[in-house]
Amino acid sequence: xxxxxxxxxxxxxxxxxxxxxxxxxxxxxxxxxxxxxxxxxxxxxxxxxxxxxxxxxxxxxxxxxxxxxxxxxxxxxxxxxxxxxxxxxxxxxxxxxxxxxxxxxxxxxxxxxxxxxxxxxxxxxxxxxxxxxxxxxxxxxxxxxxxxxxxxxxxxxxxxxxxxxxxxxxxxxxxxxxxxxxxxxxxxxxxxxxxxxxxxxxxxxxxxxxxxxxxxxxxxxxxxxxxxxxxxxxxxxxxxxxxxxxxxxxxxxxxxxxxxxxxxxxxxxxxxxxxxxxxxxxxxxxxxxxxxxxxxxxxxxxxxxxxxxxxxxxxxxxxxxxxxxxxxxxxxxxxxxxxxxxxxxxxxxxxxxxxxxxxxxxxxxxxxxxxxxxxxxxxxxxxxxxxxxxxxxxxxxxxxxxxxxxxxxxxxxxxxxxxxxxxxxxxxxxxxxxxxxxxxxxxxxxxxxxxxxxxxxxxxxxxxxxxxxxxxxxxxxxxxxxxxxxxxxxxxxxxxx
Length: 497
Hints:
Mean pLDDT: 80
Low-confidence stretches: 1-28, 455-497
Shape: globular
Number of strands: 35
Strand content: over 45%
Structural class: mainly beta
């Protein structure tokens, strides 16, 4: 078994010089299994977990791929291609997978439409694809993107973006029969602004959507919100919920819901009033209260479990002309009324030449009091990229020091790791490049009742994060469409090699 950790003290970023940290075995975390290969090279990996079942989907030159494990990731079924590549377009771009009991749903985009495969027997067989979007636009520039899915019982909820040269809107559709058919497609954003990147949350009869709007005349990018209390038959919309003035941006929306409580978080770059903003509603999204969780931070990931709200995010600074990323965490135990002081989960003190290489892009999953955070970084200033995991089993009060879960035999690709958790178990997936091979790797594990590997962390001050403006933010609607077209072209070029 190869389980290692970084033992140096968890100190403040701004107070420490750059130095390489030693790697030694981490006593007490032998619950993490040896990484295994689960698929050949591809892209856009996604993983879901329920009990001992692990579901994995990705894209490759063979199309939209799927594999599953029924023994907590120890073995996997042979990969199957759900959708084959077509002569005139890539199939299976950016798949999403959700699980609800024995129902497994895989959502993906192809050109201007969003499609769904569904399984009612735990992924043993699939039917589909079902055209969810049924986009009725006679334009070669129309592109579907930004798709998201939630499932509860027989209801399946899907939201996505359709972009054309002159507009971009958020659409929504619902199935009441487990994904066999979908009802009316609704334009939820329905405004003159450029709308994209929807996030979706569902709780009982309530459906919540959050997305980014770009007002091109004022060069303002803000967070907008819509709520429905009838499963998505009708929506009430709040444009510019974030309330930020131009020419400043909000990024990286997240939304979660529990009962009538709705939680949102986003990154605001308004000077003097920026940072990570948390919004909470206790009346089903009718009204919101707002607070700034941290003054600096980026790439937030939110998870809600009962009355606990967990946030993990990245922080960045520059040391001797190099960029240093770390991963931090805050929590609320009172439903978002108050938050803890930030804890630095990672302790990277060495810089990397490129700020884009340095970005840790954390991922998080939780179930009850178990919180798992993963990210990609190097083990020292000149080392290869690895995947790190920090674990809490007491609701985020204490965490393990970062554990390297990748094999160390190759360089972890630029795609962020993905992870899923269920009860005391976690599954982490990443792509690892060796000199003669590229593989998807998976590490799974279950926290035993006697686990004592966590320790107290000192609160850490947050350092400023360099503004991150992806190209489509800078070029408005043209960039949204062009980015999607270029992405499809890149997939086709890779497939043709």
